[in-house]
Design goal:
Elements (H helix, E strand, L loop, with lengths): L8 H5 L5 H14 L9 H17 L3 E5 L6 E5 L1 E5 L4 E4 L2 E4 L3 E6 L1
Antiparallel strand pairs: 1-2, 1-6, 3-4, 4-5
Protein name: YolD-like family protein
């Protein structure tokens, strides 16, 4: 026969959770999963810019890794346009921010 007084009595004996507690636990778990933004130096930024330019000129497919706080985002395709004034680029008809690029790889 198991002893009910062993372990954490408060949590083991309660079978009910308030919605506020569930939300707080979910927020806490999400805060643990937030990824930090990588700080790129000038050389890495220059390599990214060159790779995007080469893809635009020579129609070379790239894998572009983007920053997102919760998941890993990758864009695979050929750069269609680059807008230096607004710091963005277009792949497959969709605009992306240059500041969000973390790494670029050639296919």
């Amino acid at each position: 026969m198991s002893n009910k007084l062993s372990g954490n009595i408060l949590w083991e004996s309660s079978r009910m959770m308030l919605p506020e507690h569930k939300e707080a636990i979910n927020r806490f778990n999400q805060s643990l999963q937030i990824r930090k933004r990588a700080q790129l130096d000038e050389q890495e930024q220059e390599l990214i810019n060159r790779a995007l330019q080469q893809s635009l000129r020579h129609r070379i497919a790239l894998t572009i890794h983007m920053y997102d706080p919760y998941e890993q985002l990758s864009i695979i395709g050929v750069v269609d346009r680059i807008d230096k004034q607004l710091q963005r680029f277009m792949v497959d008809g969709e605009w992306f921010c240059l500041a969000e690029v973390v790494r670029v790889e050639f296919e």
